[in-house]
Model the fold of this input.
Amino acid sequence: MNLTDRTVARFREFGRNIFEDVAGGTGSAAVVGVNDGSPAKTVAAPQITWNFFNVLGLAPARGSTFTDEEGRAGAAAGRNR
Done:
């Protein structure tokens, strides 16, 4: 489903008696490169809600999941993991 941030927030607010939690994601891409002289590449980099992995019951292969604080409006973007 193609849902706006506001719609996901509404699902969370009014769907508590239906859903345990709601997470979302959207397809996106990022240009990344390394400092070894190789050219930058475009890779799939979906944008997801902070609780995406928790809702799916998945643990990240590396690093950690996101926190509730990171999912709040105005939170600092990105941290090294």
